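Audit log entry. Action: structure prediction of a protein-small molecule complex. Ligand: magnesium ion. The ligand was supplied as SMILES and no pocket hint was given, so placement is left entirely to the predictor. Protonation state taken as written. Sequence taken verbatim from the request; no trimming, no tag removal. Recorded inputs:
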Amino acid sequence: MVDRSGTPLVELRDISIAFGGVKAVDHVSVDLYPGEVVGLLGHNGAGKSTLIKCLSGAYKQDSGEIFVNGERAEINNPRDARRYNIETIYQTLALADNLDAASNLFLGRELTTPLGFVDDAAMEAETRRIMGRLNPNFRKFGAPVAALSGGQRQSVAISRAVYFNARILIMDEPTAALGVQETKMVSDLIQELKRQGIGIFLIDHDIHQVMAMCDRASVMKNGELVGTVNVANVTEDDILGMIILGKMPQAA
Ligand SMILES: Nc1ncnc2c1ncn2[C@@H]1O[C@H](COP(=O)(O)OP(=O)(O)O)[C@@H](O)[C@H]1O
Ligand SMILES: [Mg+2]
């Protein structure tokens, strides 16, 4: 059970953003607690990605505020987001295909020896340590990531984020391109991240997936928040009703 008695890891409060005349996100508030996965659901164009891009620093909201650990956060670009330990796992994973897992984990942030040389041994050891925790079955340490499966690539990208202290992860459709086995791998990975107290915003159009992986689900429609529910208290049909009709389920 997620403890929601303390301060949320993140609070997006009354966020609005418009493009031209289109209100992509219209006064939306959502929050996220340590060790929690909150699913964002809604039709294409509902505003899910735009909302979450205000947190990742890709967009700046027109109005509304973001709080991280209870403190007002000024997020104007992805670098600001990273300072608040917010990391995004993109659908098109930002990995260098020709490099192995360790090189990808430390890309641009290489470990060096006291004399300033790139320390390949240290990077491989660290990669084995963190991958061992997140994806214990991973063996292909020497292979270029182009040779890895979708789920394995995902675990490299997530390891990279976690190694660099991500406390808040944003995942936009992480299992969209994956098969059953691979989806299970990512789902296990998410469970491990939860155990470490990391909070995750998970955008997904698959209600079944969201019910299986998330603690709460926030549904958006036409830029507005329909509502947030505890997935243990609702059925898939309830959530479908929220997505399609924009209505909260009748109190059970
Ligand atoms: N950069 C942009 N410029 C103009 N319109 C955009 C931009 N990004 C998103 N939108 C619009 O904002 C609305 C919400 O889109 P989006 O957040 O991508 O929805 P979702 O992720 O739920 O599918 C849509 O109408 C979309 O066309
Ligand atoms: Mg989207």
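Audit: result stored. Helices lie at 48-56, 78-83, 101-105, 120-134, 150-163, 180-195, 207-213, 236-245. The mean pLDDT is 92.
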